[in-house]
Amino acid sequence: MTILFVAIGTKNRAKTLAITNIVSMYFDNLEFEQFAVPSDVSEQPFSNDETRQGAINRALHTLNASGADLNFGLEGGVHEMDGQMYCCNWGAMALKDGTIITASGAQFLLPDEIAVQLRAGRELGPVMDDYTKQKDTRSSSGAVGVFTAGLVDRTEMFEHIVKLLIGQYLFLLNTNK
């Protein structure tokens, strides 16, 4: 029985749960391992391009560290459009052969009081901790949970991205038969 080795390029609980939840729905005989890898982008990515690149970099660093079959990188960032700031999220999966698959997820408007702090150079995670008076919101509800009244949490938001990545992977497998 072949084991599918899945490497996760983060120690963040919300992101890790998203990956393990979704991958486990579609594959059996799994082995997961987490790696603390850099994104090689700003602590607070400020565009879709930078956020996407952070996800790709994490997936590639994870592949280099693990040699796993599937290597995931997930990255959250922000971008501005028409003077308003939105949260954006990207995922990447690097395959053993170097193939990179990417997908983007939900985007939602951040309140001006949060955007002002990000424009001043702060990172969203600590800003959200101050705003909610909680610790490590990035590993639980995240900004998405706070600003959607708990209807979508950070794990669920990233699960959608992981599902898009797995779907593209399955499509590649089926077209290369």
Automatic annotation (TrEMBL):
Enzyme class name: hydrolase
Organism: Lysinibacillus halotolerans
Catalytic activity: XTP + H2O = XDP + phosphate + H(+); ITP + H2O = IDP + phosphate + H(+)
GO molecular function, one term: metal ion binding
UniProt domain Non-canonical purine NTP phosphatase/PRRC1: residue ranges: 9-164
Cofactor(s) named in the record: Mn(2+); Mg(2+)
Pfam families the record matches: NTPase_I-T (PF01931)
Name of the featured protein: inosine/xanthosine triphosphatase
Record NCBIfam families: PRK03114.1
InterPro entries, alphabetized: ITPase-like_fam, NTPase/PRRC1, YjjX_NTPase
UniProtKB keywords: Hydrolase, Magnesium, Manganese, Metal-binding, Nucleotide metabolism, Nucleotide-binding
Organism taxonomic ancestry: Bacteria, Bacillati, Bacillota, Bacilli, Bacillales
E.C. code: 3.6.1.73
GO biological-process terms attached to the record: nucleotide metabolic process
